[in-house]
C-alpha cells in the first residue's frame, strides 16, 4: 500500500500541495485516522483497495491525526475515522465511520468521473449534430465497457427522444429508479419530452398564431404554440404564453399553463434571470 501511486501520507507540510492543489487535477479523498481507532484500521485497507481499483481517478491521502493534530483541528475533525473528499481546492463532501464498501463506492461515484463518461458526452454531441447512428454506436460502447454507469439510462432516453420516439422516451423516464426522482437533469428531460409530445401532430407555429389572433381563448393553440417555442429555445415567449394560459384557463390540461411554467423553470435552472422574473409573475397571478 505504501508503494501505491494512488495512496499517499499527508502532513501539514505537504497538505496544501497534495490535497488543495492536487484536487484541481483529480478528486482527493482524505482519510483522517489514528492508530488507536479500530474502525480506522478496518476502513483504511478498503480505501486503499478502492484507490487501486479506480486506477488513479482519485488520490487517497492519509492523515494521522495523532501526529497532525493542528491539521485535524483546522478541518473540524471531531470523530474518527472521518473521510473528506476535496475537489477544486475545497472539501465538497464527507462521511464518518467505517462504512461498508458499497456505500463508500456510492459516495465516490457521486464525485468521480467514470471512464465511460467521455463516451456519453461524445454521444450527446453526436445527437446535437443529428448523428443518431453515431450516438447509438457510442452508447453501445459505453454500455459494453461500463454497464453500471448511472447516466446510461438518461442518454438512452435522450436518444429515443431525438429519434422521435417520444412515447417510448416518456415511458422510459417514468421507469427510472427512485434515486433519479429529484435529479435536475431528469426533471429537465421530462419537461422537454412533455413539450415534444404536445406538438406531435400539432399545426405549425404560423397556423397556431393565426388561431390565437382569431380567438385568444383558444387554450390548445396557446399551449401548443408555447411548446413549439420551448423546443426552439424561445423560452421567454413560451413563458409568456404559459402564464397567459394559466391566467385564462386553469382547467385546460389540468392546469397545463402552471405546470408548463414549472417545466420550463426546470429546463433553465434556478439561477436563470427568466426563472426569477416569471416565477414572481406566476406567484402574483396565483395569489
Features:
elongated, alpha/beta, five-stranded mixed beta sheet, 287 residues, Serine Threonine Protein Phosphatase 5, Tetratricopeptide repeat, 14 helices
* CATH classification, class level of the largest domain: Alpha Beta
User: Which term fits the overall shape?
Assistant: elongated
Strand order of the largest sheet: 1-3-2-4-5
Helix content: 55-70%
**Number of distinct helices:** 14
H/E element sequence: EHEHEHEEHHHHHHHHHHH
CATH fold group of the largest domain: Glutaredoxin
Largest sheet: 5 strands, mixed
Which structural class is indicated by helix and strand composition?
alpha/beta
Radius of gyration, whole Å: 25 Å
Strand residues, percent: 5-15%
Number of strands: 5
Write out the CATH superfamily name of the largest domain.
Answer: Glutaredoxin
List low-pLDDT spans.
none
Count of the separate structural domains = 3
- CATH architecture label name of the largest domain: 3-Layer(aba) Sandwich
Termini distance? 63 Å
Family: Belongs to the thioredoxin family.
InterPro entries: Thioredoxin, Thioredoxin-like_sf, Thioredoxin_CS, Thioredoxin_domain, TPR-like_helical_dom_sf
GO cellular component, one term: cytoplasm
GO molecular function, one term: protein-disulfide reductase activity
Amino acid at each position: 500500500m505504501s508503494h501505491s501511486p494512488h495512496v499517499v501520507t499527508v502532513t501539514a507540510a505537504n497538505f496544501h500541495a497534495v490535497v488543495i492543489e492536487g484536487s484541481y487535477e483529480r478528486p482527493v479523498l482524505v482519510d483522517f485516522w489514528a492508530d488507536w481507532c479500530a474502525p480506522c484500521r478496518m476502513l483504511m485497507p478498503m480505501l486503499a483497495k478502492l484507490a487501486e481499483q479506480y486506477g488513479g481517478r482519485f488520490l487517497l491521502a492519509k492523515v494521522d491525526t495523532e501526529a497532525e493534530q493542528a491539521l485535524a483541528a483546522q478541518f473540524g475533525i471531531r470523530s474518527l475515522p472521518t473521510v473528506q473528499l476535496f475537489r477544486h481546492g475545497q472539501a465538497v463532501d464527507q462521511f464518518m465511520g467505517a462504512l461498508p464498501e458499497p456505500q463508500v463506492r456510492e459516495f465516490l461515484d457521486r464525485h468521480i468521473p467514470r471512464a465511460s463518461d467521455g463516451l456519453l458526452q461524445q454521444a450527446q454531441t453526436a445527437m446535437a449534430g443529428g448523428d443518431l447512428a453515431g450516438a447509438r454506436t457510442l452508447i453501445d460502447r459505453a454500455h459494453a465497457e461500463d454497464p453500471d454507469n448511472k447516466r446510461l439510462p438518461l442518454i438512452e432516453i435522450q436518444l429515443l427522444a431525438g429519434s422521435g420516439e417520444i412515447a417510448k422516451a416518456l415511458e422510459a423516464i417514468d421507469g427510472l429508479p427512485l434515486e433519479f426522482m429529484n435529479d435536475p437533469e431528469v426533471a429537465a428531460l421530462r419537461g422537454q419530452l412533455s413539450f415534444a409530445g404536445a406538438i406531435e401532430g400539432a399545426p405549425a407555429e404560423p397556423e397556431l398564431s393565426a388561431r390565437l389572433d382569431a380567438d385568444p381563448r383558444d387554450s390548445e393553440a396557446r399551449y401548443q404554440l408555447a411548446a413549439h417555442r420551448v423546443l426552439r429555445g424561445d423560452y421567454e415567449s413560451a413563458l409568456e404564453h404559459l402564464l397567459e394560459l394559466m391566467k385564462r384557463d386553469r382547467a385546460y390540461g389540468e392546469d397545463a399553463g402552471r405546470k408548463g411554467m414549472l417545466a420550463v423553470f426546470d429546463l433553465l435552472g434556478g439561477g436563470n434571470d427568466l426563472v426569477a422574473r416569471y416565477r414572481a409573475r406566476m406567484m402574483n397571478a396565483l395569489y
